[in-house]
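Final paragraph of the annual report: two paired records, presented back to back.
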Amino acid sequence: MSSISIRLEGEMDNLLKRLAAIADIDKAGIMAAMAETLRTSTVERFNTQTSPSGDRWHPSVMADSEGGKTLTKSAVLKNSIHAESDSTGAAVGTNTIYAATHQLGDERTIRAKESGYLRFKISGRWVSAPSVRVNIPARPFLGISKEDGSEIKALIDEAFGE
């Protein structure tokens, strides 16, 4: 039978104290705080209209023509942002069906179903067409910004008493 022996020298007492402190940390509490920090920052992106990297979102046609903010007409997407956590991790997201389209962007053709024509307004003028090709630019709202990273680090430092 094989065996391994390890001998530690030096500040063992300090190391053992730190290891004991890690074992006693409220992991679920830290994860809940991290999740809420990220949820709050994600919701705030709808007000600032910026991505986690700080880039401004491309304005929507409606925001350009009628005023207002992009992705906020009904606030369904913004209000659907939720956080979940337990002692093993944290997650922030949404189950809104069109969230991925806005997060990642998309190109698609929209076809009329019943009437044979789509009717919509462009630059104050009504237009009818059997189909329309649309390009929806990515407007990332999910993710971790530099500020989020700093807040998470501060939460962890506080939990470790540093």
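The closing record of the year follows.
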Amino acid sequence: MKKVIIIVLLIILFVPFPLRFEMKDGGSKELCALTWSVINYHRLTDEPEQFEVGIGVKICGFEVYKNTHIEKEPA
């Protein structure tokens, strides 16, 4: 019985939700579970026709990895 409870808790904490949240900042998407999230950045910057693109990882609400760069909008 303990093994079943532990397996269920691990599934709840680490398996991502089936929803992907699309943010209204230019197209960023977030895939998340209760303990972690991965963000695929594609957001507008202050400069016209430029986007910040890249990826970020959060564990327990703390950002542990972020790799983004600025790209111009394709012509």
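The two ends are 60 Å apart (CA to CA). This concludes the annual technical report; the extension proposal builds directly on these records.
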